[in-house]
Structure prediction request, 519 residues.
Amino acid sequence: MGEKFDAIVVGAGPAGSTCGYTLAKAGLNTLVVERGKFPGAKNMWGGAYYGPLLHQIFPNFWDEAPVERYIKRRKFSFLTDDSALSVDFASEKFGEPPYNGFSILRAKFDAWLAAKTEQAGAIVASGLQADDLLRKNGKVCGIKAGGDKLPADVVVACDGANSILAEKAGLRNPFSPKDMKQGVKEVMQLPRDAIEQRFNLSEKEGLAWESLGTFTQGIPGGAFIYTNKDSLSIGVVLQLDALAEKKVKANDLLESFKQHPQVAPYLRDGKMVEYSAHLIPVSGKAMMPTLYSDGILVAGDAAAMTLVTGLALEGANFAIASGAAAAETVIEAKKTGNFSHTMLSRYQSRLEKSFVLKDLETFKKTPHLLKNPRLYEQYPKFLCSFAERIFTNDGQPKAKAMKLLKESMKGHTSLLQIIQDLWQIKRAL
Amino acid sequence: MKIEDKLAVNKFDIDKEVHIQLKDELCQDCEEHSCLYACPADCFKLTEDGRITFAYEGCLECGSCRIVCGEDAIEWTLPRAGFGICYQYG
Prediction:
């Protein structure tokens, strides 16, 4: 056995790096292990980060971090096979510091975050995999990695959606495909000028565009396009159990989305430079593992901390906040020399007081609501059909809007159905 | 665009050790074949005689196959550290 660390953090994503950074800044002897060749090598996401949290921990991070564009324009579309009904919102306010959001590519960004952690004094060991936990009298006291035993007072598992360590520690049950969405994405290179012209953006401005509709063949989920500096992130996020049940591949639905007549012109002549995939835990509190035990804490995706509020999936803020809360708990534990589950339970109390567990509690019914297949098939058809009737001039006597609305519902939905679904939405949101 | 053409642009450091293996005795009883649809990298193929084969080289390490397999027939681990997919964009 070598040197004993105060803390070993497993995984150098947003949760792990924030945790390692906070620990090292407080003077704790910290090791962060990362199985990828470099931090970020194994990580992907849709591509946009929103909110003030990162700025609170790394003030004015946008000046030095590899961000792509700030998100000035938000767009949301309902798609049928041939039409699109969109809401497009742009605000100059989003273009002022501290900015509302950024498009970000993880391979570059996670490497930057890990470098900050290193600068704070932690050791970041890339190309090192935590294979198992070390235990003494039933308590976790380090990790086994690359054939070595690495002892530590406490281990923080930030090893992502497939967390091996939370499983080895007996803190979580095996996952069900019902609890997961699969994200599949392409990065497509396009000249800057083309991006700015096609999406009506100025230099540094970006667009986040989410869509749902018939291209997912009734499978709960949707598609996204985010503009980077000189590339686009294009992908789909789909319920894993539904893909298996309907015997459909995510890539085929991604191709349908890319070829949609209202989408394809934006992607013309793009050059595909990367194809990636990842799981997203989406059942919220219902699938959350036990967050702590003797000598171990679990944070980020490893703790299934993804907030589902509607179309948006929010994971990074929960990863960052839980990584920081884990670190603060470890710092407190270090002062007393006590790393028992009783002491580490303060991690849970911290999260309960912060937005992390509050938000997950507030939106705990939303994941179920979003499995309503009508959201992905009937409602987009109804809305686009209504828009088409409103905008069509066929020389026939015109009908009033209410009559058109009623006609648009035919074959897609009914007033009673809409009222029932709105009632569900009201309860969940 | 086909999945294999997409994978061809990715950067992989392919290990000589196989990190995912099928337990044939459990796999051969399955009629669902969920792995064929859940794998975003098309690593699973159905042979003409109805067996599933797996090629690990293009694996994106997402974990979908392990979770959808109803037979628990997938011995799933990650590639050794430093090997496997190496995202340049993410």
Notes: The mean pLDDT of chain A is 95.
